């Protein structure tokens, strides 16, 4: 039995470049995020297995020799996952020897903590929102700009948040990373460029020039009805990160796993010449300014575009 596509379906989907853009871009972005998440878990598992295999062969080795082996891992790609490995080694004194030797060990992989850390990054969450929006808009274009996650208000929230991701990363995080001498792998650079530059710009351009909207808010109405929603979500995220970070700080967890961003680490004494709390205040002011300013800019762009389209129809 042959399956014939209706002409309406062809025009609405297969013959519309916007469908392909949204479907492919959304799928690619979400697949990239999932792939990088799985890659991280695989690397943690690989590091755990490597440690188990090597430490088994080092049973009876002196403590200094075991420490020297662990130091050889530094600088390797797998070593970055060491913060998610729990390693307890038992060293005992053997008769006639002053040095302690290895007699058993226990290793655990903290996959759960790693997962929570991954999905605590604003970059990850905002890109997931973009990917979901694109897929929903691809297969339900009739809802674009009207209801649910594709409504006008939620669309501006997603657009504003991905703008925050792009500007904060390129304006604060990337310079700090380069100044610290940290280098990314080729795959890491691919993920970074896609999530912080390519996809944000592509999504913003689509919203500004092709998003279907029936704008009916004045500037005052927009400020009253939409601004508080954007700030509320940011406030909830900030409270979550600060509470989680404080709990990990008090629990003496590895410093790199306490706060996802350096400017949220209020316990840092001196970071590029300023204490952590000062960076937090600067970041808060910067983020709020981006949120309020760019959401209004996008609203004005869409309002003017909508007015132009109405005039052309009339």
From TrEMBL:
InterPro entries: Pr6Pr-like. The keyword Transmembrane applies. The keyword Membrane applies. It comes from Williamsoniiplasma luminosum. The chain crosses the membrane at residues 20-38, 119-137, 149-169, 189-211, 227-243, 277-301. Keywords: Membrane, Transmembrane, Transmembrane helix. Coiled coil: none annotated. This is ABC transporter permease.
């Amino acid at each position: 039995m042959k399956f014939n596509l209706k002409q309406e379906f062809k025009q609405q989907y297969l013959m519309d470049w916007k469908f392909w853009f949204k479907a492919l871009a959304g799928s690619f972005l979400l697949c990239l995020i999932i792939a990088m998440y799985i890659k991280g878990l695989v690397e943690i598992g690989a590091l755990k297995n490597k440690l188990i295999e090597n430490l088994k062969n080092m049973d009876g080795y002196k403590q200094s020799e075991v420490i020297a082996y662990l130091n050889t891992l530094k600088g390797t790609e797998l070593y970055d996952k060491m913060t998610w490995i729990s390693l307890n080694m038992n060293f005992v004194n053997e008769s006639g020897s002053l040095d302690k030797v290895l007699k058993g060990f226990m290793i655990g992989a903290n996959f759960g903590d790693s997962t929570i850390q991954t999905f605590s990054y604003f970059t990850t969450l905002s890109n997931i929102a973009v990917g979901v929006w694109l897929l929903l808009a691809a297969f339900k274009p009739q809802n674009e700009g009207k209801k649910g996650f594709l409504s006008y208000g939620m669309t501006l929230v997603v657009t504003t948040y991905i703008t925050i991701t792009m500007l904060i990363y390129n304006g604060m995080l990337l310079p700090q990373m380069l100044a610290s001498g940290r280098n990314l792998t080729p795959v890491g650079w691919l993920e970074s460029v896609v999530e912080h530059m390519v996809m944000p710009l592509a999504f913003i351009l689509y919203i500004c020039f092709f998003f279907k909207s029936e704008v009916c808010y004045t500037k005052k109405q927009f400020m009253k009805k939409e601004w508080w929603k954007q700030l509320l979500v940011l406030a909830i995220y900030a409270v979550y990160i600060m509470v989680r970070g404080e709990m990990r700080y008090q629990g003496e967890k590895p410093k790199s796993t306490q706060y996802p961003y350096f400017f949220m680490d209020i316990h840092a004494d001196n970071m590029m010449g300023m204490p952590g709390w000062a960076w937090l205040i600067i970041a808060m002011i910067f983020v709020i300014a981006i949120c309020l300013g760019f959401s209004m800019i996008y609203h004005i762009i869409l309002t003017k575009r909508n007015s132009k389209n109405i005039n052309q129809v009339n």
